[in-house]
UniProtKB/TrEMBL annotation:
InterPro entries with a match to the protein in the record: Glyco_trans_2-like, Glycosyltransferase_2, Nucleotide-diphossugar_trans
Any one GO molecular-function label of the UniProt entry: transferase activity
Coiled coil residues, start to end: none
Domain called Glycosyltransferase 2-like: residue spans: 4-168
Name of one Pfam family that matches: Glycos_transf_2
Keywords: Transferase
Organism: Desulfomonile tiedjei (strain ATCC 49306 / DSM 6799 / DCB-1)
Family matches, as Gene3D superfamilies: Spore Coat Polysaccharide Biosynthesis Protein SpsA, Chain A
Protein name in UniProt: Glycosyl transferase
Length: 228
C-alpha cells in the first residue's frame, strides 16, 4: 500500500522545513510527499524552491493565495498513493500519529479516517475555549445533517482511499473544505473511522489563520452541500 501526504501551506516559512522533516522521519517506511504552496509571500516559496524541493516528491505552486481547499484540490490531483493523508504545515498535527491513522486501512476496515482531538488520551495543548465551543457546534450541526456521529469534523487530519477522493469534486477554496468533504463523504456512505490523535494548537500570534468568518462559512457549507 502506497501512502501520499499532501501538505498545503501558506506563509509558513518558520515551520515548513520542520514539518517536511517530520513527515520524512515518520514511522511510514515509504511515503510520497506532495507540497502545495498557496501563493506564499513571506519567503516560504523561495525556501521551497531552493532548499525543500529536493526533499519532497512533488511541488505545486499557486501564483496567488486561494485557500486551503484550493491547495488540497491541487495536491489531491498530484498524489499517486493508494491512501492520501492531509498534513497541515503548521506543526499542530504530529506525523508520529500516522500509524494510528493508517491502522484501519491496513486491517481492511476503513475507506476514510478522521483524527479526533477529543477522543484521545494523548497530549493536547490548552488554548481558546471559544474555538472548542465553535468546533463542537459545527461538528454537532454537521452530524445532524449527515447522520454520522463524528466527534471532530474540523480536524486537520483526514485520510482517504484514493478511489474515494476520485468520486468527490472539491468546490470550496478555503476552510469550507472540511464541512464540504464531510457532507459529500456521508452521501457516498464509505466506511469512516475516527482515531485519537495528539494536538499542539497555536495562537494567532504564532500564525493561526482560521477566523470567525470561516465559522459562518462552515455553517453555510454544512447546509449547502447536504441539500445540494
Amino acid at each position: 500500500m502506497k501512502f501520499s501526504v499532501v501538505i498545503p501551506c501558506y506563509n509558513e516559512v518558520n515551520t515548513i522545513s520542520e514539518i517536511v522533516t517530520a513527515v520524512r522521519n515518520s514511522p511510514l517506511e515509504s511515503v510520497e510527499i506532495v507540497l502545495v504552496d498557496d501563493g506564499s509571500t513571506d519567503g516560504t516559496r523561495e525556501l521551497i524552491q531552493t532548499v525543500i524541493a529536493s526533499r519532497v516528491d512533488r511541488v505545486v505552486l499557486h501564483e496567488t493565495n486561494q485557500g486551503k481547499g484550493a491547495a488540497l484540490r491541487s495536491g489531491f490531483s498530484a498524489a499517486t498513493g493508494d491512501v492520501v493523508i492531509v498534513q497541515d504545515a503548521d506543526l499542530e498535527y504530529d506525523p508520529q500519529d500516522y500509524p494510528k491513522l493508517i491502522a484501519p486501512f491496513l486491517s481492511g476496515k476503513a475507506d476514510v479516517v478522521y483524527g479526533s482531538r477529543f477522543i484521545t488520551g494523548d497530549p493536547r495543548r490548552v488554548l481558546y475555549f471559544r474555538h472548542y465551543l465553535g468546533n463542537q457546534f459545527l461538528t454537532f450541526l454537521s452530524n445532524v445533517f449527515t447522520d454520522i456521529n463524528l466527534t471532530d469534523m474540523e480536524t486537520g487530519y483526514k485520510v482517504f482511499r484514493r478511489e474515494i477522493l476520485a468520486k468527490i469534486t472539491i468546490e470550496e477554496n478555503r476552510f469550507g473544505f472540511e464541512p464540504e468533504i464531510t457532507a459529500k463523504l456521508a452521501k457516498l456512505r464509505p466506511r469512516i473511522y475516527e482515531v485519537g490523535i495528539s494536538y499542539t494548537g497555536r495562537t494567532y500570534e504564532e500564525g493561526k489563520k482560521i477566523t470567525w468568518r470561516d465559522g459562518f462559512r462552515a455553517i453555510y457549507c454544512i447546509i449547502k452541500y447536504w441539500l445540494k
